[in-house]
Amino acid sequence: MKRDTSELDQQWGARLKRARLAAALSQRKLGVGIGLDETAANARINRYETGVHRPDLLTVRNIARELGVPVAYFYAESDELADLIYRHERASTSVRKSIKKLLAEVPGLPEEAPLKHSPSKPRE
Predict the structure, then answer these.
(1) pTM score of the predicted model
(2) What is the pLDDT of residues 17-60, one digit of tens each?
(3) Residue 69 to residues 75, 105, 123: CA-CA distances in angstroms?
(4) Which of 3, 26, 56, 90 is in the most buried spot, having the most CB atoms within 10 Å?
(5) CA 79 to CA 84: how far, in whole Å?
(6) What is 7-102's CATH topology?
């Protein structure tokens, strides 16, 4: 029986496939690179790419490391944001600094601030 896949699972899988192809890796090579058994590697990566299965977070981290992309690339809300994350990761330090400077000039955005869950500064 064929299982229906959600749009989000398909989107996740499409991003995996794009990143894998950009890294010039076969499904088997990626699977083996993240520690999957060689006999099952191709099928498992194929299931991730088609959205039939979604890997757990540890596996996603291994995939991201092997492909040289941030984990956030796979979970971005839109393809546009995923593309920006992907390109940012591959940009040189000088380009990243330029991007940060450009974004700091966007009106109405606060200066960089720690996230609410970030540890606060030590009290004196």
Answers:
(1) 0.78
(2) 999 999 999 999 999 999 999 999 999 999 999 989 889 999 99
(3) 12, 27, 37
(4) 26
(5) 9
(6) 434 Repressor (Amino-terminal Domain) (1.10.260)
